[in-house]
Amino acid sequence: MNAFTRILSKLAFSGDDIGIDLGTASVLIYKRGAGIVLHEPSVVAIDTNSGKVIAVGEEAREMLGRTPGNIQASRPLREGVIADYETTERMLAQFLSKAVGRSRFWKPRIIVCIPTGATDVEERAVRQATLAAGAKAAYIVEEPLAAALGAGMNIEGPQGNMIVDIGGGTTDVAVLSLGGIVCDTSLRIGGDKFDQALIRFVRSQFNLMIGERTAEDIKKTVGSAYITEHNRFLAMDVKGRHLISGLPRTVEITAEEANDAMREPIMAIVEAVKKVLEITPPELAADIINNGLLMTGGGSLLHGFDLLLQDELEVPVYVAENAVACVALGTGRILGHMSLLEKTKARGARRVL
Ligand code: ADP
Ligand code: MG
């Protein structure tokens, strides 16, 4: 290889395209030819005096709820799709340069996934944030399509597939067929709401203030969507600040209590899935009864969520093998066949409002 071809091959490699799962809880970056090259929480820490970004990702997450007055750690995507446009853009730019480096000479083409419920304004904001963060071109793909592809589904055939993707801030429910979304809904309820429900429960039950990270810890340790004889009496110690004495205190919370506390947001998701099934054309519904429904996203890892859905819907329910990475892996499959991009454009889906 002479110097010239070496430069050429380097250019060809660095020109490789990128897929981003811009989630409300975490961002994953997929690089063609390399796989997932970044997986970090969607958190940014900013110095409010200088306006400078101090840290992004895991480093910033560790600062959540622990920052002195002049530092603000926040999740720019949490409530909506892009709650804070400018911070989202800065976060993306930092992640991109961390994952693939920055170069004056090339800019990647980037596929970004957003929830199906995103408004046009939000979609434009994501596109602009991606371009501003250093993309040559930005393509937007709806999350359930990427999730299905990432889980290895064949979505191009005429059979019906159902995806329930539970993220931090949103849940996407979609029935797919012939490479498109046939009917869907998206709700702004996800794992975050389970955490908030636990915070409220611990406060009202024990007069104890706990932070979001502690709540998430409870959810992952003893949290369950489905109580059985095996987990009913699981319990863990929870530390927080007692509201009356103002002092640190420890209480015990059981799986049953956690389940009660999270019931409302969990059932809201179950109801949304039911509503989508109700408007699913009968032939596709028959496929779903046969093939089942696939859960993806971090929220699908809540213990027993699959069992609860199976019970409520009477269809088989599976959790994807790589539930958290499905969407990013799906962007990877699309990058491998840019022609898939055409096929994964949404086309007039029926939507539950
Ligand atoms: P997003 O796509 O919005 O970035 P993710 O798919 O990364 O979200 O999912 C994040 C959510 O999944 C968070 O609310 C997190 O607490 C939750 N989660 C992750 N692992 C588990 C687990 N083992 N049990 C319950 N919830 C989990
Ligand atoms: Mg997601």
Describe the structure in your own words.
With 353 residues, the protein is of the alpha/beta class. It has twelve helices and 17 strands. The protein has helices spanning 3-14, 58-61, 85-100, 120-132, 143-150, 191-206, 212-221, 255-278, 282-291, 305-313, 326-336, 338-343; strands spanning 18-22, 26-31, 35-41, 44-47, 53-56, 71-74, 109-114, 137-142, 161-166, 171-177, 180-187, 208-209, 235-242, 248-254, 293-296, 317-319, 350-351. It has a six-stranded mixed sheet with strand order 16-15-9-10-11-17, with helices on both faces. Strand 4 and strand 5 form a beta hairpin. Helix 6 runs antiparallel to helix 8. The radius of gyration is 21 Å and the shape is flat. The structure holds adenosine-5'-diphosphate and magnesium ion (MG). Magnesium ion (MG) binds at residues 21, 23, 143, 165, 167, 297, 327.
Bound molecules: adenosine-5'-diphosphate, magnesium ion
What gyration radius follows from the Cα positions, in whole Å?
21 Å
Strand content: 25-35%
Question: Strand sequence of the main sheet, in spatial order?
Answer: 16-15-9-10-11-17
Uncertain ranges: 4-14
Arithmetic mean of pLDDT: 89
End-to-end C-alpha gap = 59 Å
Shape annotation: flat
Would you report the number of β strands? 17
Order of helices and strands: HEEEEEHEHEHEHEEEHEHEEHHEHEHHE
Helix content: 25-40%
Treating each run of at least 4 consecutive H or I residues as one helix, how many helices?
12
**Alpha-beta classification:** alpha/beta
List the helices and strands and how they pair.
Layout: H1 3-14, E1 18-22, E2 26-31, E3 35-41, E4 44-47, E5 53-56, H2 58-61, E6 71-74, H3 85-100, E7 109-114, H4 120-132, E8 137-142, H5 143-150, E9 161-166, E10 171-177, E11 180-187, H6 191-206, E12 208-209, H7 212-221, E13 235-242, E14 248-254, H8 255-278, H9 282-291, E15 293-296, H10 305-313, E16 317-319, H11 326-336, H12 338-343, E17 350-351
Parallel strand pairs: 1-7, 7-8, 9-15, 11-17, 15-16
Antiparallel strand pairs: 1-2, 2-3, 4-5, 4-6, 9-10, 10-11, 12-13, 13-14
Helix pairs in contact: 3-4, 5-11, 6-7, 6-8, 8-10
